[in-house]
Each structure stands twice: as structure tokens, then as C-alpha cells.
């Protein structure tokens, strides 16, 4: 009898239902040993090699999956990201080395869309400033702005941005979309160029993948093109914004505020002081890359990741939209 394939799980908050599903399909599940809410970036290289020894599958959270790691573990057949971004996975190396890489497509779309609207509303209505004033005993009204009737620009128009657009229609806003390849005519949105979007939008919300062409999409020059008093929201990837340039624009009063779930400091610790300066500002509402981490979204992502691993190891049909690369 063939041994049960070993599946390492290093993502945080992996629930019992997904674990039981893997076990029921004949897998041996190996936990990371981290605290339930700890990130797998805390695992040392030596401990990671120990955990991956003999593993056929790896359900990964934020840990970088490098060519070197893959080369040291030739028996590792599938890497399943419990999320939709895969910029921390060397997909070219995975394909070269004959591995499968998957994402949990659709797991957190609704959660991130909800969080995006929450940040827009919180910044526009100055909820942080209002709460701070109340906590200090000042009950005077802090007057914010409506989302109703505004123009909102969406940069990128994938699954999450489309859900954001659906939610925005309830606020009677004008939705502008900048995307290089509009693959369908979406009702109620207007496709424009990025300069048009920046000049016209009261709120600019980022939903593009991070890559060489989108790194620092919002920088000193493009932030300067934005409508005076506009709000920036980023629930995608930190590198889409030059955080230092955003800090300058906010300090100069050119923008009305920012709602930030992601920061450049997540991948570049040298930029931590910039992130901390942004978070400290009263016109910034921030969260710690938590947009996709509702309890429901995490459970969906866990189960989709489990299905992806089983599909790759047992040769079954892969869940729709989850396959990133197949080097087999």
C-alpha cells in the first residue's frame, strides 16, 4: 500500500473542516507548529526544510516560495496558496521544476469587496477622527463627506473589483474603470484611461496585480494628477503605491485621506517607518492586510486549498480558476 501523501499546512487559522477533508481523502496533514494566528513568515529556513521533508503538498500563507526551496524538495508536487495573490511564489521556477501552483480563487472576493467599501466610507465620513474625539471627551460633530453621488475610479477590474462595482451602484455613484484589457462590457461602468480616472475620481480604489508594470502605479507624479481632496483606497498590494510619496501628498493636504490594508513595508522592512507614519495620520484608516480575512473567507480559502491539493495529487479536476501553473 502506498504511503499517505504528506501535506504541510503553514497558513494561519487553518480550520478542522479543511483538515478533516484532507484526511478523509487519504492525506496526512502536518501542521506548522506556529500559533494559530501566526504568519508562516516566522518559520526559519531550517524549520521550513524540516517540515517540508517528505511533503507532497504545501498549503502556504505569506511565506515566500523560492526556487531554492523548491529545488531542495523535489518530492513537493503542489503548492497551494490560501489566497489569490501569488507574487511571493516563484511560478517560473515551479514550472521549470515540474510543480503545480494554485490559488484559492473566489474565496475572499466578497470579503475584500466589503472591506474596500468599509475603508471608503470610514475615510470619507472621518470615522477615525470622530471616534478619537469622542474618546477624548469631545462630542462636537466631525463633518465628513458622502459616498453618495461621487465618482469612484477602479484601477483593475478582476473578480474583486467587479464585486466592488456592484456594491457601489447602491450608492448612486459614477464608476470609472481603468483596465488594459476590458474583456466584457460591464453594466454601469465607464472605461477610461488612467489619467482620466485620476483627474475625475473622488475615490481611487486599487485592484490591480503587482508586477513590473504596476509597481508604484501611484507615485509622486500620478498622485499629483488626482483630483484635489480625493481619497485613495488600496486593498490589493502595497507596492502599487509609493508609500513615501503618498505620505508627502497627504501631509501637503493635496488628498482627502487614504484607506490602506496593504503597505510596502510588508515586503521591505526598511519602509516600516513610512508605514507607521501613514498609520499614525488622522486622515488614514488602516488595517493589517486583513481585508480577505473574514472568518467566512478564511474557511472558504482553506477548503478550496484542500481541494486543490487533492486534485493535484490524485489527478482529479482542479477547482475553477485556481490553477496558476502546471509544470507536470
From TrEMBL:
Name the PANTHER family on file.
FORMATE DEHYDROGENASE 1
Q: Does the keyword Thylakoid apply?
A: no
InterPro entries membership: D-isomer_2_OHA_DH_cat_dom, D-isomer_DH_CS, D-isomer_DH_NAD-bd, NAD(P)-bd_dom_sf
Q: Which residues form the D-isomer specific 2-hydroxyacid dehydrogenase NAD-binding domain?
A: 117-291
Segments forming domain D-isomer specific 2-hydroxyacid dehydrogenase catalytic: 42-319
Organism superkingdom:
Bacteria
Q: What is the enzyme's main class?
A: oxidoreductase
Gene3D superfamilies given in the database record: NAD(P)-binding Rossmann-like Domain
Q: Which keywords label this protein?
A: Oxidoreductase
Spell out the SUPFAM superfamilies in the cross-references: Formate/glycerate dehydrogenase catalytic domain-like, NAD(P)-binding Rossmann-fold domains
Of which family is this protein a member?
Belongs to the D-isomer specific 2-hydroxyacid dehydrogenase family.
The name of this protein is: D-3-phosphoglycerate dehydrogenase
* Organism for this UniProt entry: Xanthobacter agilis
In alphabetical order, the GO MF annotations are: phosphoglycerate dehydrogenase activity
Q: Does the keyword tRNA-binding apply?
A: no
Enzyme Commission number(s) of this protein: 1.1.1.95
